[in-house]
Design a protein that fits this description.
Layout (H helix, E strand, L loop, with lengths): L4 E5 L6 H15 L6 E5 L5 H7 L3 E3 L12 H11 L4 E5 L3 E2 L3 H12 L4 E3 L2 E3 L13 H12 L1 E2 L7 E5 L16 H11 L4 E3 L6 E3 L10 H10 L2 H4 L7 E2 L13
Length: about 250
Amino acid sequence: MDHPITLFTVPRSFKGEIGIIQANAVESWRQLRPAPEILFISDDPGVAEAAKDLGCSHVPGVRYNDHGTPLVSNVFKKGQGAASHEIVSYINSDIVLSQSFMGAIRRIKERFDQFLMIGQRWDFHYPHPIDFSDEDWSVRFVKRAQKKGARHGPTGVDYHCFMRGMYHRVPDFALGRRTWDNWLVWYALRQDIPVVDVTKVVCAIHIGKTTTKPITPEIRRNRELGNHAGTWGRVNFATWALQPEYDYPGELFK
């Protein structure tokens, strides 16, 4: 039985290309079954209205650093605090998901009471509306992304699925400025919480632009806060790996 979940994200204003990309991502989440609760944690202009239009909930009052970047500590506090379900997932607002995401959660929850589910993404820039009226949209889109896109390395983690309350103390990382996502993995490893890599099962597709950011004061500060997390908190350091059921019947993990 699939479990209901809460997804929380920090979208930007729904304008121009990023607006199309975020709307695609959110609609892909709305297609999941059981339908997830979706929280928009952002004070950007127009986000509250977009949340209403897309059938999501808006959580205002985000804390920012001196550069105007949301603080991961506050985002995770608000996301877990507002969530209605015990299974929650932070997810970047430009990630398209398919039903395999829910199937992976079900299989992991059958094995573990506490866990962190992560995986590598596929990079496939797609700034066009997706035709969700096609009942096979996800199959077609996944095949297209895997054919024309590329799998990202194990350093970037674009979704973290876990049990609500697991992250009760998070440093004041700047969101989206490296290291913070690796710290979340490193923390789970340090707490002996099973970290499950679902790359072979879940195709999470990053449809935004992939850019290389220069080293900025925010990135340097994140590295200071994360200590060695950027080295050890990668997807390939997961303690478990979810295998496709048809390849490994009866053996779900290794």
